């Protein structure tokens, strides 16, 4: 038996890894999800043999390893370097390039998939297309990915970037200053403990003379075992002071950054586990359609009511390619806010979900651990189309996670 933990340390269990299908089960990667989405409902984790086809990548390889070895850059690179390509597909992850690059689905040409009955199939936009689209952003509930074929339109790997930084106050000002042009990686930090909503906005673009630079493989940042929870509780306004210092020290203008700083920005300061009791955190990440962006301030006020926000980031999103998955991608914005799990108010968050639903927003399920089934169904009104396809290929609920049970995704 092997003990696995979610990245936010809010879910854990002992599992037995097997190469045979035993219900209920789930195929897992490196457990970078914050909540219970990567936790099998039972104690079995299915580990299939990777596809032997030469043009197919091993789904258990990290996206950083694949980019380094193939000198390419994926669209929609998430913030940790050891995310497996299978996990990235299952969550339809996104990055700082989403407005022009799209989510992770843009990288994928076809998939090999083991279904609940043990059959191995190939699926793409042209072949078994419904299964293809329900698998990308399907959180491992359609089957087990055994091989991944990439599209041939991926861009070259870049080692050095030109970074530009701006500062300001207020969400309206931030959105007006936010850019995400082609080849530009953009993200903003916002101080939610300051009524002025001070922000730092950063864009990064590849250096033109990059071809002369040596590409270096990136490793995940070291995670210490200690934490300073009094900061996360904002004792004596300590968290507020940390934010003020960060904002003051941020220098506007241009600079050169390497790839690891652009794509994988997690550090001792930005890793909110370091300021949370027992290193447990919960993240609320949501998308909001562009037509409702004027309501962001009010929405944030409801979100942080009776809460202590640790970190807030904002990125721009593009349209979702399909309505047959559970991706939260939609044209507009995504905001992610970290909280200490120990102090999280599970009662007040219900008001936020109600407000978010009224504004056609969606919660990112890869980060979720607090949503209820009825709230999910109001957010994801395409759920019935997705579940209708899943029921055909997994009628006995072979592939189940704690998240799918909590949200009643396979309630048949």
Q: Which descriptors would you attach to this protein?
A:
about 400 residues, alpha+beta, Vanillyl-alcohol Oxidase, Chain A, domain 3, 8-stranded antiparallel beta sheet, 4-stranded mixed beta sheet, 13 helices, globular
Detailed description of the structure:
It contains 13 helices and 17 strands. The chain is an alpha+beta fold. It has a domain of 216 residues: 3-Layer(aba) Sandwich (Vanillyl-alcohol Oxidase, Chain A, domain 3). A hairpin with a 7-residue loop joins strand 11 and strand 12. Helix 9 runs antiparallel to helix 10. The longest helix has 12 residues. The two termini are 30 Å apart.
Could you name the CATH topology of the domain at 160-375?
Vanillyl-alcohol Oxidase, Chain A, domain 3
Mean pLDDT: 94
Calculate the terminal CA-CA distance, rounded to whole Å.
30 Å
Largest sheet: 8 strands, antiparallel
Helix share bin = 10-25%
Runs with pLDDT <50, length 5+?
none
**Rg of Cα set:** 21 Å
So how many helices? 13
For this structure, what is the CATH class of the domain at 160-375? Alpha Beta
Side-by-side strand order of the widest sheet: 13-10-12-11-15-16-14-17
Class of secondary structure makeup: alpha+beta
> Quaternary arrangement of the chains shown?
single chain
- Overall 3D form: globular
Number of strands: 17
Q: What is the architecture of the domain at 160-375 at the second tier of CATH? A: 3-Layer(aba) Sandwich
Q: SSE layout and pairings?
A:
Layout: E1 2-5, E2 12-18, E3 25-26, E4 44-46, H1 63-70, E5 72-73, H2 85-91, H3 98-101, E6 108-114, E7 120-124, H4 129-135, E8 144-150, E9 155-156, E10 160-169, H5 171-177, E11 185-190, E12 198-206, H6 229-232, H7 238-249, E13 253-258, H8 259-263, E14 281-289, H9 296-303, E15 311-317, E16 332-340, H10 349-358, E17 362-363, H11 373-379, H12 383-393, H13 402-406
Parallel strand pairs: 2-4, 3-4
Antiparallel strand pairs: 1-2, 5-9, 6-7, 6-8, 10-12, 10-13, 11-12, 11-15, 14-16, 14-17, 15-16
Helix pairs in contact: 9-10
